[in-house]
Each structure stands twice: as structure tokens, then as C-alpha cells.
Design a protein that fits this description.
Elements: H1 32-36, E1 43-46, E2 54-56, E3 64-69, H2 78-87, E4 91-96, H3 99-103, H4 106-125, E5 129-134, H5 145-149, H6 157-171, E6 179-182, H7 195-210, E7 215-219, H8 226-230, E8 243-249, H9 253-256, H10 267-270, H11 283-295, H12 302-322, H13 326-342, E9 350-355, H14 369-386, E10 390-392, H15 411-416
């Protein structure tokens, strides 16, 4: 879940689910491996920040401290993984920041690859499948998506491509059928760009050169949004079978990302108390909460806050007028279902790789937690109704289902995800 420019799209997202679909394309021809393949990933969770939250040095340096990952970051223990499996989850999606691997010398890189291998083995020991996702950090000054995967001419694309091949080779013989590789997280290219298909093909070629039968995940541009996947022509990708498809879902962002401090648009900073569904509250109550939050903001000028409030008022009016609810989510995911039907792709091969919403706690003031639970349940149930596997974002942090310190599972999230509390 990186900071892609899509998040400037506020009101338009509320009506996107009703936009007519593009004309049909010829069905995807199934290869023998695709037809015979098993697709074991059904219900998962993202295990960020196991291989994220790094200790990079400031510019002009391009390297990291050693070890490169922050020691205080929450990392799942074997007991945590066992409890996730007991809850009913069957896989984890493991985001891996490639920066430390690409900046390391040969010895450090070998150590990092051993750490990654051990993490996969730990998940497999808990009977969890694993999707390893190479997830570049957009906030890093050097090893970021623009420098690595913006095009095949990006300055660090060759190194990134080699790394994808190395990871594929490492995973090739690890629990065949139960592990997969996703070479890029949320491609930064526009849906209509011809750069992303070239980047994806080059990375899939590198992966397939190291692992002939490893499951690979492919996606569309536009940060893996629904519109990116439905714009993707899957026919050329048949050469890389066995493959799975993936997309991310956070619409409407006005709800899922309210109060998120990493958002670029100024409306999100003070946004809170946005209800789900919209009919569960009123614009007046939400705006009162926004004003109270802005009154506590000592960093922005009064002029900046007035401008932010005016924009917040505008987009909230769009939100409440649209009355988003479960039907809104169904309308979005139906676009994916229609795309799958047109291309002869079974829904169990299309993973909703991220979905979630920021919670209100001691660090964040965001969605009311009962509304958050209703939203998560609606998205999960809609995905399952269409037959799509899913991976919740996230295990830890402000969108998490497990407390960073106590490791207690959030009962509301467990219920919303249709899981069970371990031991029940």
C-alpha cells in the first residue's frame, strides 16, 4: 500500500463503479500448466513490516545501516503464525523492500536472502502459503519505484530484474504449489501506459528463467487498482503460466484512508468520523469532527486549514450524496468479474491482494471502529461472492488485525474477516 498519485482522486472514485466497461477482447488461452494448476490461496493477510521499515542513510548515500531493518518493527513469531492459521487464514502476503538487498554487498545480500528464506519456511511450518511481494518503498530517496520499475530504462531496473530472478530461484523448490512470487507492488504507471506491460514482461521473464513452475502474480497499472486490472490484456501473459492475477481495493479512499498521515492530499489530515455505510451518519456530524480535529492542528496556517476545510466539505458532499454501501463495492468488483468472464479467467485466480481501512486508536483518529468493521466485512463478503481470494492489509500497525505489542488479535477484525478467534 504505497503512496501512489491515485489518492488525489476523491469524488470521482465514488462514481467510477458505474463507468461502462471497455469492449471485449479474445479469451485467454489456457496453457496445460494453468489448467492443471491448483490455486491454494484463499484467505490471507499482509505481513508488513517484516521486511520493511528500513534504516537507509540520507542522500547522497544510497546504502543502509546493518542490519537494514528497524529492530523495533513488529515481526510475527512462530506462535503468531500458528494463531493466524488457527483463525482460518491459509496464506500470508509478504512485502519485501528490495532496497536493502540491492544496496548490500555480496555477503550481506546472502544473509538477507537467508533471512527471507527463513521467513518463508516459518510461514510454511505454520501451514500457511506465502506470496512474496517485492514492494519498493516510495518514501525512500534512492531505492524507490521511479528508479527501479518506472520503465525498462529506469536506472536501477537491471538490478531489480536480477533480484526478481534470484528470489524466484530461491522459491522454486520451497513447498511447490504453496509459494508464489509477485514481482512488483502497485505499478506507478498509468492504466494506458505502454511502459508497464514491458516492465512486467521483463520481470516475468527473469522469474521464469529461474523457476519454471513457480506461481507468479501479474497485475495492471494504476497502482493495481481495479481500473488497472480491467485495462490489462492478459493474452500475452499466457506464456508465463502458471500465473495468478491481483488487484487492490481501498475505495472509497475517503473512508478507508481518513486520518492517514501519509496521504498527500490535505483533506485527509483532519478527516475523521466518516461513517460506513454513508447512511450510518450525517455530513454535519462528520464536518463537526473535522473542525474539532483542525482546531488541534498547530502546524498548518489558518489559510491552509481554511482551504483544506473547503475541499473536505466539497468531497464529503459527494460522498454523502452518493450514499456508498455494499452495493458500491459490488459495482467495483463486478468490473473485475466481467473482465474475468471476457477473458476466460477463473475467479479463484484473481486475488484481491490488499484491502483495509485505518482504525482509530492512540495513534490515529480515523474511521469509527464499528464502521471500519462493517466496511471490512462488506469488502470481504463482496470478494467472496465473486469468488476472489483476498489478503487483508494488514497484520500490524494502524490497519492491522493484531496488536503490535501484545499480539492480541482484534475480535472485531476477526469477525469482519469471517475468521474465528484461535481457541474458540
Amino acid at each position: 500500500m504505497t503512496g501512489w498519485s491515485r489518492r488525489r482522486i476523491l469524488g470521482a472514485a465514488l462514481v467510477a463503479a458505474t463507468v461502462p466497461l471497455v469492449s471485449a477482447v479474445p479469451p485467454l488461452a489456457s496453457s496445460a500448466r494453468a489448467a492443471a494448476g491448483e490455486w491454494p490461496f484463499r484467505r490471507g493477510v499482509n505481513a508488513w513490516p517484516w521486511f520493511a521499515l528500513t534504516r537507509e542513510f540520507p542522500a547522497p548515500r544510497t546504502d543502509y545501516g546493518w542490519p537494514p531493518f528497524q529492530s523495533q518493527r513488529p515481526v510475527p513469531t512462530p506462535a503468531d503464525l500458528a494463531r493466524l492459521r488457527a483463525s482460518g487464514l491459509d496464506f500470508i502476503r509478504l512485502p519485501v523492500d528490495p532496497g536493502p538487498f540491492l544496496a548490500a554487498d555480496a555477503g550481506q545480500r546472502a544473509d538477507l536472502m537467508a533471512m527471507l528464506s527463513a521467513a518463508v519456511e516459518a510461514a510454511r511450518a505454520a501451514d500457511l502459503g506465502v506470496i512474496v511481494n517485492v514492494q519498493a518503498n516510495g518514501a525512500t530517496h534512492y531505492w524507490n519505484p521511479d528508479r527501479m520499475v518506472s520503465s525498462t530504462s529506469a536506472p536501477e531496473f537491471p538490478r531489480y530484474q536480477v533480484f526478481v530472478g534470484e528470489v524466484a530461484g530461491m522459491l522454486a523448490d520451497m513447498a511447490p504449489g504453496k509459494v508464489a512470487l509477485e514481482p512488483v507492488n502497485e505499478p506507478p504507471q498509468d492504466c494506458s501506459s505502454d511502459a508497464w506491460p514491458k516492465v512486467q514482461a521483463a520481470l516475468l521473464t527473469a522469474a521464469r528463467g529461474s523457476a519454471q513452475d513457480l506461481k507468479l502474480l501479474v497485475t495492471g497499472g494504476c497502482g493495481s487498482m481495479v481500473s488497472g486490472l480491467t485495462a490489462l490484456d492478459p493474452a500475452p501473459l499466457a506464456a508465463f503460466e502458471p500465473i495468478l492475477f491481483t488487484f487492490h481495493f481501498y475505495e472509497p479512499y475517503l473512508f478507508s484512508h481518513q486520518g492517514a498521515p501519509w496521504m498527500r492530499e490535505p483533506v485527509y489530515r483532519a478527516l475523521n468520523n466518516v461513517p460506513w455505510p454513508a447512511s450510518a451518519g450525517t455530513i454535519e456530524k462528520t464536518l463537526a469532527s473535522v473542525r474539532a480535529r483542525m482546531a488541534q492542528d498547530k502546524e498548518r496556517s489558518d489559510e491552509a486549514k481554511r482551504a483544506a476545510y473547503a475541499e473536505t466539505e466539497r468531497v464529503l458532499k459527494v460522498y454523502f450524496d452518493a450514499e456508498p454501501d455494499r452495493r458500491f463495492i459490488d459495482g467495483y468488483l463486478k468490473q473485475v468479474g466481467n473482465w474475468a468472464d471476457r477473458n476466460g479467467i477463473a475467479p479463484e485466480r484473481i486475488i484481491m491482494g490488499e484491502f483495509g481501512a485505518l482504525r482509530t486508536d492512540t495513534r490515529y483518529r480515523a474511521a469509527p471502529n464499528p464502521d471500519r468493521a462493517r466496511y471490512i466485512a462488506d469488502v470481504r463478503q463482496s470478494a467472496e461472492a465473486f469468488g476472489f481470494p483476498w489478503a487483508f492489509w494488514d497484520l500490524f500497525d494502524g490497519m492491522g488485525m493484531m496488536d503490535d505489542t501484545t499480539r492480541a488479535l482484534d475480535p472485531a477484525m476477526v469477525e469482519a474477516l469471517g475468521l474465528r478467534m484461535p481457541g474458540d
